[in-house]
Amino acid sequence: MKRPVKIVIIGAGSINFGVCILNDLVTSRELDSELVSVVLVDIHAENLAKAYRYAQRAGAFTNSHIRFSSTTDRRQALAGADYVLISVAIDRWRSWEQDYRVARELGINHILGENGGPGALFHALRNFELVIPICGDIEQLCPDAWVFNFTNPEARILAAITTLTRVKAIGLCHGFHRLHHLIAKLLARPLDHLDIRTAGMNHLYWLHQVQDRQGHDLRPELERRIAADPQCLPPLARYLFQVFGALSMPDDHHIGEYVSFAHEFVEPGWIYGVEGLDPRRAVEEEILAGFKDIFEGKVALNAESVRASTELAIPIICDIELDRHVLRPAVNLRNTTGSIANLPEDAIIEVPAMCDAAGIHPLAIGALSEVEAALIRPQLSIQKLLVEAYRTRDRRMLLQALLLDPTVQSAKAVERLLDHMFRLQADRLPAFPAALG
Fold first, then answer.
1. Could you tell me where the DSSP H helices lie in 176-231?
2. Is the distance from CB of 376 to CB of 343 less than 8 angstroms?
3. For residue 287, which of 102, 15, 10 has the smallest C-alpha distance?
4. Separation between Cα atoms, residue 217 and residue 221, nearest integer Å
5. With pLDDT > 70 as the criterion, what percentage of the chain qualifies?
6. Cα dist from 430 to 122, 188, 292, 351, whole Å
7. How far apart are CA 120 and CA 82, in angstroms?
8. Residue 60, exposed/middle/buried by CB under 10 A (0-12, 13-18, 19+)?
9. DSSP code at position 217
10. Residue 433's pLDDT is what?
11. Quick check: 268 pLDDT over 70?
């Protein structure tokens, strides 16, 4: 590092997020400097203490010279920050399960309830209440800082940040990896020998290009291999590819949050719930249990546990600080440069972006297919209505956002949903007038 760099991690007490980002920091040779200070922030003092102890242990294990500190006072931490990473939630698992189950009990066939569909409306409102005040502090205390948001629902949160504040923000998500690895497997080529580019919206991105190092188009070969083995795609992704020629693969639960007919292809049930219909649940629980043991110091650290993750935040910080001119595969930001030609400039999109000392520059993609763009456009209107409803506390606008959602089949059901959820989560949701007026 040629200058002092201050990184603030808000939500550092989150086990999965905390371990991944801290590992990325202490294994980064570029950031191995006493000029780099990292402040861990969390409102939960016990979790924060665990995160700080883990940072110290992991830093010692890798001989990192990064200076770590911690505080529950985010304003104290933010003063003079260069980068702020945000991953926050209120009572995440219980709230998310309520978002999903209450809507299903009212007859709404939505999927997952995290990033799209009616469940995501309440998820977004809860997290607006956390993220927007944080960004207000950033405006005052470190207005030139880059803000990297990890908080879901990513597109809706970033729409609120970029509409209601003046901070310099992008969103990051590792959902693109699943498609990249599938393509490499199907083509039987090393991933680093391929140029794979996706474009669209977070969790609703589409394959835009796949080439080899010599610039040869490999999409025809990929499509032949999928046709020969259609079971390589899960049911909903397979149907969209067969009918529309549009390929996406974060997984069917994520894609299904935005598609009106997804319930015909995705098993009902909350995949993290007691019914356990998705076999991945057991694997994810095992992974989280492993992270918890590492985080809490119950197992000794080793090269396998202290290794870089697939998250992009720390690599992008290095790209900016060292002017590396690296193309990163998926960054969420506003479409202000017209990167996707047939989506509006205020759309929150996910595209590859070049990262260097001058900033983060989205790649010019051109136009999506009409089908790909058409599946995204309703979400942009919903985002606008939801953000404006939050700003003005207009309950009728919340109802409008719900009624525009492709997964909603009943006006009466969503009216009841609004009333019930505002009673059920009164301690977690922003205040809105009780009457629709």
1. 176-187, 219-228
2. yes
3. 15
4. 8
5. 95
6. 10, 50, 31, 32
7. 31
8. exposed
9. B
10. 87
11. yes
Q: CA–CA distance from 74 to each of 13, 39, 168, 172, 386 (Å)?
A: 13, 9, 18, 21, 27
Interatomic CA distance for residues 183 and 308, integer angstroms: 22
Peptide bond into 153 cis (omega under 30): yes
- C-alpha pair distances (Å), 148 with each of 45, 156, 158, 294: 23, 14, 10, 25
The string of pLDDT tens digits covering residues 372-423 is 999 999 999 999 999 999 999 999 999 999 999 999 999 999 999 999 999 9
Contact 171, 157 (CB under 8 A): yes
Angle at 129 between CA 377 and CA 417, to 5 degrees: 65
Rounded Cα–Cα distance for residues 143 and 80 (Å) = 9
Contacts of 355 (CB under 8 A, 6+ apart): 316, 319, 320, 324, 325, 326, 327, 328, 331, 361
How far apart CA 33 and CA 4 sit, in angstroms, is 9
- Please, which pLDDT band fits residue 283 given cuts at 50, 70 and 90? very low
C-alpha separations of 56 from 52, 60, 72, 423 in Å:
6, 6, 17, 43
State the Cα angle at 353 between 350 and 356, rounded to 5°: 145
Look at residue 437 and tell me whether its pLDDT is greater than 50.
no
Give the pLDDT confidence of 288-304 residue by residue, as tens digits. 666 778 777 888 899 99
Other Cβ atoms within 10 Å of 286 Cβ, number: 10
Task: Determine how β-strand 83-86 pairs with β-strand 146-149.
Answer: parallel
Residue 352 CA to residue 207 CA, distance in Å, equals 12
- Look-up: residue for tokens 């059920």? 424
Task: Report yes or no: 242 and 100 within 8 Å, Cβ to Cβ.
Answer: no
Q: What is the mean pLDDT of residues 210-216?
A: 96
Q: Per-residue pLDDT for 81 more than 60?
A: yes
Q: Can you say whether the dihedral through the CA atoms of 331, 336, 339, 341 is positive or negative? A: positive
Angle at 177 between CA 33 and CA 98, to 5 degrees: 100
Residue 278 has pLDDT above 70, yes or no: no
Of 98, 173, 99, 95, nearest in space to 130 by CA: 95
Against a cut of 0.85, is the pTM above it? yes
Give the whole-angstrom CA distance, residue 244 versus residue 373: 12
Range in 17-31, 109-123, 255-269, 286-300 with the lowest mean pLDDT: 286-300
Q: Give the pair of three-digit tokens for residue 332.
A: 């969420």
Encoded amino acid at 425, one letter? Q
* Torsion from C-alpha of 11, 12, 17, 23, nearest 10 degrees: 160
Residue 282 has pLDDT above 80, yes or no: no
